[in-house]
Amino acid sequence: REYAIATIPADGIGPEVIAAGTRVLAAIEKREGGIKFNIENFDWGSDYYKKHGIMMPTDGLKQLKKFDAIYFGAVGSPDVPDHITLWGLRLPICQGFDQYANVRPTKILPGITPPLRNCGPGDLDWVIVRENSEGEYSGHGGRAHRGLPEEVGTEVAIFTRVGVTRIMRYAFKLAQSRPRKFLTVVTKSNAQRHGMVMWDEIAAEVAEEFPDVTWDKMLVDAMTVRMTLNPRSLDTIVATNLHADILSDLAGALAGSLGVAPTANIDPERRFPSMFEPIHGSAFDITGKGIANPVATFWTAAQMLDHLGETDASARLMQAVERVTGAGILTPDVGGTANTKEVTDAVVDAIYAS
Ligand code: NAI
Ligand code: MG
């Protein structure tokens, strides 16, 4: 089985973690036998922007379309505004390829001491499903009377019946595939009385298609409390683009660090390549120090293997990662003293030893 993978390391620690992830994929290829990754690298990102005035070539999506998956680092640079880096590279790929389901698993890995009391390895076994194509990040809005005292800025959230129904179906289906068959639908339908109320209504409609899935509803503010005070009461979670963005950063922190939190941007209909990346950004504060935690980038490679149908290889990779974290080979963000290379070497060894 051959897979064409596009790597886009981009900015900051992106190239450091994608280099580590590429080594681990090479180890999987050798260990499994019968799998081949044809990897092509793209140098798009903030440095490209400084040379060309754009984050990627105008035919960038056309170049990516032929790949089976995209393996992405992070965007963001101290000297390019964040809305340019984000809207110039990551969002056009998510939106252009209609990767409407953003899937963010969490779990406390062995060896990692989480910040919450009463939580340990295996806990916080959640999957957050983030609506990834519309909502608060649809880009609608504008500014009037720029710079004047009467200036107004609007940021319009757009929710469509098609968009909400498809993400809700995806989330119910995912919940159904997990042992607890339990879904929590997050909105803010008390204060936001149009699109959010529509979310609640569509959730109830889609729920009828999944009689074996138990579900409940939460307001997003109360959800932060439930995640911290009653974390075992949750399993699969679905929320809007903005709400899930925030909740999943919280989930990452509760699991020990953003450096262990992966994410998959999925086109469930498989018309286009899906994109796999760590949740974290370019982390300028540690760029070049060689201490970026590569675990999120390894975990998202496991998500990629799953998506490609290589479930055995995916399981082998995650077992290797858990063996290494369990042995206390950890980067400083999760309390260890190892660097990126040492963690990567250990995961590669664990793959060969498995
Ligand atoms: P960040 O995720 O880059 O860093 C937040 C904190 O977590 C930093 O202290 C950083 O050192 C630490 N951290 C993150 N990943 C780590 C890892 N793998 N290992 C160890 N420590 C890690 O978020 P921040 O600082 O708010 O943003 C920096 C830049 O990244 C900004 O330009 C922002 O726009 C961009 N960004 C890009 C994202 C993406 O490409 N998907 C996501 C989030 C932010
Ligand atoms: Mg975020």
TrEMBL record:
Q: Where is the Isopropylmalate dehydrogenase-like domain?
A: 4-347
Task: Report which reactions are catalysed by this protein.
Answer: (2R,3S)-tartrate + NAD(+) = 2-hydroxy-3-oxosuccinate + NADH + H(+); (2R,3R)-tartrate + H(+) = (R)-glycerate + CO2; (2R,3R)-tartrate + NAD(+) = 2-hydroxy-3-oxosuccinate + NADH + H(+); tartrate + NAD(+) = 2-hydroxy-3-oxosuccinate + NADH + H(+)
- Where is it chiefly localized? cytoplasm
A cellular component term from Gene Ontology for this protein is: cytoplasm
**Which Pfam families does UniProt cross-reference here?**
Iso_dh (PF00180)
Report the subcellular localization: Cytoplasm
List the GO molecular function terms: D-malate dehydrogenase (decarboxylating) (NAD+) activity; magnesium ion binding; NAD binding; tartrate decarboxylase activity; tartrate dehydrogenase activity
User: What PANTHER family does this protein's entry cite?
Assistant: D-MALATE DEHYDROGENASE [DECARBOXYLATING]
Protein name as catalogued: D-malate dehydrogenase [decarboxylating]
